[in-house]
Amino acid sequence: SVAMRQDILDLIERLPEEIKTILKAVRDTAEEEGCAVYLVGGFVRDLLLFFPTQDLDFVVEGSGGQFARALIQRMPDGKLTQHEKFGTAQITFPDGSHLDVASTRWEYYSFPGALPQVEESCLRDDLFRRDFTINSMAICLNTEHFGELVDYYGGKRDLQQGKIRFLHNLSFIDDPTRMLRAIRFAERYHFSLAKETLEALYTAIESGVLAKLSVERFTEEILHIFKEINYLAMGQTLIRSGLFKAWFGDDYAWNFNLEDEQDSADWSLNTRWLISISDMDSPVIEKVLDRVILNRSLRDETMTFVSLRESLSNPLSLNEMDALLNKVPKEVVMVLTRDERFSKLLTEYLEASQKINMSLNGKTLIQMGVKQGPEIGKILDQVRRAWLQGRIHTLEEEKGIVRHWVDTPR
Ligand code: ATP
């Protein structure tokens, strides 16, 4: 409708200049190429929700490759990557942002060296392949229709009513990642799943459709969830729905505590992950690790967490604690501190270690006359201990004890 179009034009007008510039370049390129072009997907959804948005996705009715090559001419600092096989192209900018161009014309080769077979579809088909109605809206960018909403599947109504609704009954069977996406979008916007969508979600979980999903794709979706502001509520839904049980094989002691909501805003992804598994026994954590493929830092921190938890169960001196914890990432120690078995011990250690204020290093020791070699490391360890135990409090005292050691032959 005309009113709707004016609303969208107003929303576009309020976008940051960089984005408006891109939209104009896309519009002008479409004019030049004589094809139809649309803004689609999450950007449209978030624009209508007045949500801060980032990634731009376009769909071209026509050849996406040709369109992208024409578009890049208008974007001197963009870098074009084409994926001819999938009919998509991506333009990345120096600040790390990017835009994606997909096309409704698919050219594929039935065997190497064959002439391309061209399959034409249209915007409607493209939008039908998407996950939920709220993600299947488009905004036309061609000059004459600039700002018109294309909404074949009732996306705007569902946005207004706060519903996550699939486009067809087989949606979760076709792509089980959509189950995780449904939960993520529902909690992110405080929406609920439409009745049939919710039923289909439960049916899909029970029918074991998650088995179709690779560990990589599952992990990717889970990490998307852990990056969300209200990931705790999402985690609870993953448990309540039985989805985690279906994937991991059993009901494990996941920790998604809504009481942490305020604090969790400042937690890194690694911290969030560690806290979520912190109530599990070590053998359970191992089982969980078999069902996700974590990046190096997450995996290492998880292993460190597990092994430190074992070590800390024995009585330890301050020095022994320091040897264990000195090089461990702060977030691991922070998560361990939340465990009431260790909180007193670790708080004492952290207080003591905060007093460490070493100014000496290998170089300054050599200047003071220490011979190069293993002695240097030993002295630095000793100095660290002296700080930790509160035997020295100032840089003067630090130098003092070192001079004393250096001058006293041992
Ligand atoms: P976010 O705000 O989390 O980035 P988004 O909707 O932009 O959300 P993307 O993963 O970037 O998410 O996907 C862009 C668009 O591609 C979606 O809006 C949706 O239309 C479509 N899409 C993404 N994943 C799927 C999927 N698994 N099945 C169907 N359509 C999908």
From TrEMBL:
One of its GO terms (biological process) is tRNA processing. GO terms for molecular function: metal ion binding; nucleotide binding; nucleotidyltransferase activity; tRNA binding. The keyword Nucleotide-binding applies. Keywords: CBS domain, Magnesium, Metal-binding, Nucleotide-binding, Nucleotidyltransferase, RNA-binding, Transferase, tRNA processing, tRNA-binding. The keyword DNA repair does not apply. Coiled coil: none annotated. It comes from the Bacteria. Belongs to the tRNA nucleotidyltransferase/poly(A) polymerase family. This is tRNA nucleotidyltransferase, A-adding. It comes from Desulfosporosinus metallidurans. The chain holds residues 440 to 849 of 849 of the full protein.
